[in-house]
């Protein structure tokens, strides 16, 4: 099932020309826009439309320039579409966050003949399986979750490995022996990520104190800010957050308290030049290629349940840590060497993991 890229491009074009359901997906020129409201196409369409092109839609729950979860996926999908502009016609929609807006948006794209539709967030899960049942000729991709149909699959992050690395860094960078982690909703990948954070911190510095908070909402910037301020005031000097709007609040708290924060999903140094020590960078490209390969060669419909979750991991290049920005000089060369050693262990899949609930 794992084919080289030139073969797959030929398969894409061949399938699009042969199958009426795919050929019907062609249409007019892609529509640009600012993407300020739910359901409004945003800038990011790739290439001129043609009858032979596969129509692909990416629905984001936030903004494509959020320096977080949405931007990483936006960059990954647009890079793929640009590299395959002869075969892909891409449209992107921003700010589809409320569950009530999701099913109509998915239905609209399926009605227009979009062959591959990405819903980038856990809240897309139930609406997506409902729409997938009604549109068997489309392929639906859910960004994190656990429910799928024969014509849908999930792409997810094995965040335990990323969390482990962030916990390892936080523990070594802490001078007070107190670190924190702040999440949005306690969805499965966040629970695994926080568990990994605790494991990594303990591996680096046994007995370290770890404070943990979930705000309950990815966009609760104010709540995350207050939680981070409370942690810093209690003696915590390094916090990792799990992205989206809450990340903006945590980084701002770090700036205001002049403490360290570890970013997530994207390099967030620009949000706090003196306070973002490092962070986790996602590379969804590690699975995007494979998704399109499986769609193109027809194997997508026959994937096993295990294969229906496309994981990004540190081992497959789906995550890495961002360059260090140690403005306070807290990390020694020995500690930097230890961090790189932990990273290499994760890349080689040498860290034993517990069974996640």
Describe the structure.
- There is one protein chain.
- The protein has 357 residues and is α/β, with parallel strands linked by helices.
- The protein has two domains: 5-157, Rossmann fold (3-Layer(aba) Sandwich), CATH 3.40.50.2300; 159-281 and 320-347, Response regulator (Rossmann fold).
- It has eleven helices and 13 strands.
- The longest helix has 17 residues, at 188-204.
- The two termini are 30 Å apart.
Task: Compile the SSE list and pairings.
Blueprint: H1 5-18, H2 20-23, E1 41-42, E2 54-59, H3 69-83, E3 88-93, H4 99-111, E4 116-119, H5 125-134, E5 139-143, E6 152-157, H6 159-173, E7 178-183, H7 188-204, E8 209-214, H8 221-233, E9 238-241, H9 245-257, E10 260-263, E11 276-282, H10 285-296, E12 309-312, E13 319-321, H11 333-347
Parallel strand pairs: 2-3, 2-4, 4-5, 5-6, 6-12, 7-8, 7-9, 9-10, 10-11
Antiparallel strand pairs: 1-3, 11-13
Helix pairs in contact: 1-10, 4-5, 6-7, 6-11, 8-9
What separation lies between the terminal Cα atoms? 30 Å
CATH class of the largest domain: Alpha Beta
Specify the helix fraction band: 25-40%
Per CATH, the superfamily of the largest domain is: Response regulator
Order of helices and strands: HHEEHEHEHEEHEHEHEHEEHEEH
Question: What is the CATH architecture descriptor of the largest domain?
Answer: 3-Layer(aba) Sandwich
What does the largest sheet look like? 7 strands, mixed
Tally of strands? 13
The chain-level structural class is alpha/beta
